[in-house]
Q: What sequence folds into this?
């Protein structure tokens, strides 16, 4: 499960990482405690070109009548083990895959006693995490503005993450981005091999303040080690 994340990168860093230094026509503000229903930049392909666009975290299914109704489904994560068959995600998995650029994500360790202990997990090399996602475009009515939304694809934890939680986001290798983002590649047998845990040596983690438990808190110090 991944229900909280953060991004601290700049628009320039996003552009360099994903668009070969093309100027990014998007304002990117840091979010130190990103939660479902909030917006995040997405990397996707339109007309054979990579684009970076804002989208709402929590996939809005086509049958939803309102955003409030969509929120009841809690579609902020898509389990990789069932994504190719589950009606909610199967079409998006074939045709509308995306990358959710994150600086890191939060997960809660459940100790034998006492409160859950939140941890921040990031790439050890400091690079932006290219998290696998699927996206959709929904309209409340034919004349309404479209709402873009996404789910993060999750998988079983690797040996590093398993000490904290049994699930984790799918973090893609840079070499696999073109395949994942290509909407012309729709065969599950070509895509599903990418739905796997990343190598454990990619990651680092530290415990953070329990202030991160509340989405009302959104400060730079939330990502720092607890007590630091």
A:
């Amino acid at each position: 499960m991944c229900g909280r994340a953060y991004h601290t990168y700049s628009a320039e860093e996003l552009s360099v990482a994903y668009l070969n230094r093309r100027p990014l026509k998007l304002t990117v503000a840091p979010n130190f405690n990103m939660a479902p229903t909030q917006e995040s930049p997405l990397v996707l392909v339109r007309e054979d070109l990579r684009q970076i666009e804002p989208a709402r975290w929590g996939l809005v299914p086509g049958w939803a009548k309102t955003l409030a109704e969509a929120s009841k489904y809690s579609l902020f994560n898509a389990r990789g083990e069932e994504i190719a068959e589950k009606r909610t995600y199967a079409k998006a998995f074939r045709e509308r895959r995306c990358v959710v650029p994150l600086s890191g994500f939060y997960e809660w360790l459940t100790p034998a006693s006492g409160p859950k202990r939140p941890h921040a997990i990031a790439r050890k090399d400091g690079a932006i995490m290219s998290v696998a996602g699927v996206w959709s475009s929904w309209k409340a009515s034919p004349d309404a503005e479209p709402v873009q939304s996404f789910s993060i694809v999750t998988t079983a934890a690797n040996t590093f993450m398993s000490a904290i939680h049994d699930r984790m986001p799918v973090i893609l290798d840079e070499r696999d981005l073109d395949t994942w983002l290509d909407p012309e590649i729709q065969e599950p047998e070509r895509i599903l091999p990418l739905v796997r845990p990343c190598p454990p040596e990619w990651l680092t983690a530290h415990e953070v303040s329990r202030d991160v438990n509340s989405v009302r808190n959104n400060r730079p110090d939330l990502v720092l080690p607890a007590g630091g």
